[in-house]
Automatic annotation (TrEMBL):
Pfam families: Bac_luciferase (PF00296). Keywords: Monooxygenase, Oxidoreductase. This is 5,10-methylene tetrahydromethanopterin reductase. The keyword Oxidoreductase applies.
Length: 383
């Protein structure tokens, strides 16, 4: 099982000091936190993608490449890659390039994005969000799995004899997680392709998460990718820890009360009772995370949000020390002991290459496309 952290890259005022970090400070802090995650033995760092204030995570591939150049083992991922407002051709090119640069030490999580004003900035309409996610991923999947693509859809210009370059490393495309909080269509999409399903697991009660994961698992089996138990599931969650649980509650409360995604809603006590948010001692975090298995089954990836809501970098680094030294080692041992035979491990490039029987030889046919006009010979009759 893979353990790690994810960040959404928010620039939030620290409610205890009144100070707001600059964009430069926030971007640099993201790197420092990622390097710390590898130092304490985590498996994954995932960075977000947003195109509106107060976020600075607009270019995840740039950030991932920079982190990757300074790390050796940790997997770089996204939280999320916006499949709705990012051209699938650019996703295919950018993430395949990143795959080569990192020697396969990466994957990505696709998401729709729920900020309405962002869609028009990229010529899209949020009311088409599901349709965009479905069509754009169909194209992305084709671009990575077929050397020469002829494609026509509703939301972008057609492609004729197109080859996305570079081709995926070893002929094996990056692993894809489909991220969703509330959309069953996305769980269905993940199941259809045999990809992973990532449930953010922050805002909703366990009963909702259970239904979403159960739907994905049943449909994964329906499409013939494996048994119900073999479906690939990832969960998110946020934790805040101190050695003494009441110290954790007292310290985190002002951040919770003013957080962009929490503030103004239920109390901290109500939220921690009704959702997976856990504020307390390392032992309480361990107990809570182990309970996720009761409604999500045996899953492959657990990511924690650690740097949200204006928490200072020093505090986040202290949280990572606790996570790496006291929490994750126990979780690894306990989850491994509970895991039945036949449940797959978290996906890696090496495991996917092995499943494919080794590196896949690429035999790209020469597309019969006019280099000046981009049209094929068979299209001439239609002119």
């Amino acid at each position: 099982m893979q353990f790690g952290i994810f960040t959404v890259g928010d620039v939030t005022t620290d409610p205890t000091t009144g100070r707001t970090p600059t964009e430069h400070e926030r971007i640099k802090a993201t790197i420092e936190i990622a390097l710390k995650a590898e130092e304490v033995g985590l498996d994954v760092v995932a960075v977000g993608q947003h195109h509106n204030p107060p976020f600075v995570a607009s270019s995840p591939t740039t950030t991932m490449a920079y982190i990757g150049a300074q790390t050796k083992h940790i997997i770089l991922s996204t939280a999320t890659t916006l499949i709705t407002t990012t051209d699938p051709v650019r996703i295919a090119e950018d993430y395949a390039t990143l795959q080569h640069l990192l020697d396969g030490r990466m994957d990505l999580t696709l998401g729709r994005g729920n900020t309405g004003p962002v869609y028009p900035w990229f010529g899209k309409d949020i009311r088409d969000g599901i349709a965009l996610a479905v069509e754009n991923y169909a194209l992305l999947h084709q671009l990575w799995h077929e050397d020469v693509v002829n494609w026509e859809g509703k939301f972008r210009t057609p492609l004729h004899g197109f080859t996305a370059t570079p081709r995926p490393l070893d002929g094996v495309a990056p692993f894809v997680w489909h991220g969703s909080i509330r959309s069953p269509e996305i769980a269905e999409q993940a199941a259809y392709y045999g990809d992973g399903f990532f449930h953010n697991n922050i805002f909703w009660p366990s009963s909702h998460t259970r239904r979403m994961v159960d739907l994905y698992r049943r449909r994964f089996e329906h499409y013939g990718h494996g048994s119900y138990e073999q479906a690939i599931v990832g969960l998110g969650g946020q934790v805040f820890m101190r050695k003494n649980s009441q110290d954790a509650v007292n310290e985190f409360r002002p951040y919770f009360d003013k957080a962009p995604v929490y503030g103004g809603g239920p109390s901290l006590e109500d939220f921690t009772r009704e959702t997976p948010l856990t504020v307390g001692s390392p032992e309480q975090v361990i107990e809570r995370v182990l309970s996720f298995r009761e409604y999500a089954g045996d899953y492959q990836r657990q990511l924690f949000l650690m740097d949200h809501a204006g928490l200072p970098v020093k505090t986040v680094l202290e949280q990572l020390d606790l996570l790496g030294e006291e929490v994750v080692p126990v979780l690894r041992k306990e989850f491994a002991a509970l895991r039945p035979a036949g449940v797959p491990d978290g996906p890696t490039h090496a495991s996917m290459v092995a499943a494919a029987g080794g590196p896949v030889e690429q035999n790209m046919e020469e597309p019969q496309v006019d280099k000046w006009t981009g049209t094929r010979a068979e299209d001439d009759n239609q002119l």
